[in-house]
Design brief:
Elements (H helix, E strand, L loop, with lengths): L1 H14 L1 H35 L4 E6 L5 H14 L4 E4 L2 H11 L4 H7 L7 E5 L15 E4 L5 H41 L1 H9 L4 H40 L9 H26 L8
Antiparallel strand pairs: 1-3, 1-4, 2-3
Helix pairs in contact: 1-8, 2-6, 2-8, 2-9, 6-9, 8-9
Length: 286
């Protein structure tokens, strides 16, 4: 029985080599895209998570907030936000930062001294965006940037993952539809043979077997090709990341095995679904 399934299934594939090759390519491209994007996501998420630690946010106070006024304001802010860490930036450090960014101010800063510079704080918070609430305080003149490079990269990573997931799903849907249509057309092309087999008492399993084999072979080939392409793509990207001092990408065994299993499941599922629709059709309908 198995020999019959294999011989008839490969016979179907040989009769339609272009369609078989197209189905293999369609599935392998979709799975390669999804596998490589998942490998990149597994590589990027730990880096972004480690880099998403709390970072200081600059808060510029009004010039008149000095001495006891500054002390009282700091105490009230620490009481309202116990998880924040507040640091008063020394005037010489403010002058140094301004001198580095704006060299033409160096002479003016040395001449005027501390009276020219308003007080500045660095607020370290678990969620930097929450520091923007200080803008409502009458003592605050401005709040510095609250978005970090890690947050920007994380948002970009999530958007790219969503885009790649949508593209992968669309390509797999096309491959599923392609396999379903191919099996559907083959059933009609061999309608007379199927009708005769049913008349002589052949079971549905013996009828469906060759079509399942003919769908499984391109799927298995596509899964293996996708696993190889994902591994090769990860190795190529690892060379780029190593050049800039970042850890290499890894392709876990379960990812490669999942690509093979998924490549096999897509055309098999399409074939089984199409065969189930035709299982109880009459001879005249085929």
């Amino acid at each position: 029985m198995i020999r019959h399934f294999l011989s008839e299934g490969f016979s179907l594939l040989r009769e339609r080599p272009v369609v078989s090759a197209g189905l293999t390519i369609a599935i392998s491209v979709a799975l390669s895209l999804g596998g490589l994007s998942l490998a990149v996501a597994l590589w990027a998420h730990p880096l972004l998570a480690r880099g998403a630690r709390s970072v200081p946010v600059a808060v510029l106070l009004r010039p008149q907030v000095r001495g006891q006024t500054l002390t009282r304001w700091l105490e009230a802010t620490e009481k309202a936000h116990p998880r924040w860490r507040l640091r008063v930036v020394p005037h010489d450090e403010i002058a140094r930062r301004l001198g580095e960014r704006f060299p033409y101010l160096q002479g003016l800063l040395e001449e005027e001294g501390e009276d020219l510079l308003p007080p500045m704080l660095e607020v370290t918070a678990p969620h930097p965006a929450s520091v923007r609430s200080l803008e409502k305080s009458p003592a605050v003149l401005a709040v510095g940037p609250v978005s970090t490079i890690q947050e920007t990269l994380s948002g970009l990573s999530h958007r790219m993952e969503a885009l790649l997931a949508a593209a992968t799903a669309a390509l797999l849907a096309v491959a599923f539809l392609m396999a379903s249509i191919w099996v559907h057309l083959e059933l009609y092309r061999h309608g007379d043979e199927i009708a005769i087999m049913r008349l002589v008492g052949a079971t549905e399993g013996s009828i469906r077997g060759p079509y399942l084999v003919s769908a499984a072979v391109p799927g298995l080939a596509a899964g293996l090709a996708a696993a190889a392409a994902t591994g090769a793509g990860a190795a190529w990207l690892s060379r780029l990341t190593s050049a800039v001092g970042l850890p290499p990408l890894s392709t876990p065994w379960w990812l490669l095995a999942g690509l093979v299993v998924f490549g096999l499941a897509v055309p098999l599922g399409a074939a089984a679904w199409t065969l189930a629709r035709h299982a109880h059709m009459g001879t005249e309908e085929l």
